[in-house]
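_Backbone structure tokens_
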Amino acid sequence: MNLLSVEHLNVNFHFKKRELAALIDVSFTLKRGERIAIVGESGAGKSILGFSIVNLISKPGYIHSGAIKLENKDITSMNLRQLQEIRGKRIAMIFQDPMMTLNPVITIGDQLVETIRSHTKINYKDARNIAIEKLRNVQIASPERRFDQYPHELSGGMRQRVIIASVLLLNPDIIIADEPTTALDVTIQAEILQLLLAICRDNGVALVLISHDLGVVSKVAERTLVMYAGQIVEEGPTLEIINDPQHPYTQGLLNALPQMALPGQRLNQIKGSMPSLAERPNGCAFHPRCPYATDKCRSEQPEFIYSGVSSVACFMVEDMLDEFNQHDEGLV
């Protein structure tokens, strides 16, 4: 049984008497202990998908249709009390900016203890010991001293470690990490990613890593979902997607990595920009930016097809596979 199943999920925003689609027919599964990544530019729908998994979409957004099943329980039909049992204990979330999560006027320790005691009947002393142990687990030096400090007294990397410690307090089955290294320098980014990877491996925790950077994803995720304009356009093993990207958008993301340009050369970029919810084009949403777009791409929505071990929604790939199969048949 899959730990998490997202089935034909559609999320809409009601804006000025219009229904704008933010997520369109999104489906994927997550096994216990598996590490997947959701990749795409800003506006692709990555964070909305992450918030949807824990049913935290704020108005005017709402889950229009589809199911999000934690084992055999549909999160979309749960009431607030049931959701509070899920959030933190079964599914925990790491946000981009730790200062948005941590209360600046409460000590680190009191915030961790409050999290434990809000879900359990543990006394303060035992909760304090658990919190200090979790701080030690995320490689925070002198955790007893850090316990009594306020968020502003810690560095950005240290605050992100505190957030990771906080999501581990209740031993969740799934961690959703939304751009967890965005505000950190490269060295600290690598440390945080290695820490997340080690924690998931050691504790059998499943990870959903949300990122715009395929370079970051390659170090952590076993499987990658590439999103564009609210839809998944390619899915497959991470190394396969990085070494042999099928969708033109995935190819563009990889070509835009800094290491793909020669020293002194301008960085590669995908022409144009992500369409807004109100300006989503007909057909394949990527066609205005795609160098291979045809009239069919502009009028019809491609279906998912298998290409090797990956699946991709692209007419160009479909045509190439058809030609390849016809060539093989001709040789028989």
In short: The first helix runs from residue 46 to 53. The chain has one domain: 4-331. The first strand starts at residue 4 and ends at 15.
